[in-house]
Amino acid sequence: MTEPPKEFAQQLRSLREAQGLSVRSLASLLGVSKVTVWKWEKGDSRPRPRFIVPLARALDVAPVQLRLPEAAMIDLPDQLDVEAADALELPPPGKGEPLPDVIERAKRMIAEASGVGPKNITISIEY
């Protein structure tokens, strides 16, 4: 892993403080240790790709605003509405495609965006 840009470390701390979050509370939101967040803020390391979207959400910014190379590839719409479905080439919700096919395609898209294999993606539906 290459060294993270110092501007990311400084920006992360500023965004965290602007949201009124402590290092501990941000770590808790992300499911990481406070040492991990502290290392990100010191510029000793950077978040793994799977943490970019949750980190951006916690800081109330778009992933691409985090100034990480990986984030530019993950800037997806937050909500899947009809326009977003068209942009992602998905049929609008409730139109046509069987649920198992939608789930498999979603797994592939998530895997591609996060840099892991589809077998590592689990989708849970609660209703």
Descriptive notes:
By secondary structure, the chain is mainly alpha-helical. The protein has 2 domains: about 5-75, lambda repressor-like DNA-binding domains (434 Repressor (Amino-terminal Domain), Orthogonal Bundle), CATH 1.10.260.40; about 80-120, no CATH class. The protein is built from 6 helices and no strands. The protein has helices spanning about 5-20, 25-30, 35-40, 50-60, 80-85, 100-115. Helix 2 (about 25-30) packs across helix 3 (about 35-40). The termini are far apart.
Brief account:
The chain is mainly α and 127 residues long. The protein has helices spanning 6-18, 23-30, 34-42, 52-59, 82-87, 99-114.
The main sheet comes to: none
Fourth CATH level, the homologous superfamily of the largest domain: lambda repressor-like DNA-binding domains
Rounded Rg:
16 Å
**Low-confidence segments, ≥5 residues, pLDDT <50?**
75-88
What's the overall geometry? elongated
* Topology order in helix (H) and strand (E) letters: HHHHHH
* Helix proportion range: 40-55%
Number of domains: 2
State the CATH topology of the largest domain: 434 Repressor (Amino-terminal Domain)
Alpha-carbon distance between the termini?
Answer: 40 Å
- What's the mean pLDDT score? 76
CATH class of the largest domain: Mainly Alpha
Structural class: mainly alpha
Number of helices: 6
Strand content: under 5%
CATH architecture of the largest domain: Orthogonal Bundle
DSSP strand tally:
0
Keywords:
single chain, 127 residues, mainly alpha, 434 Repressor (Amino-terminal Domain), 6 helices
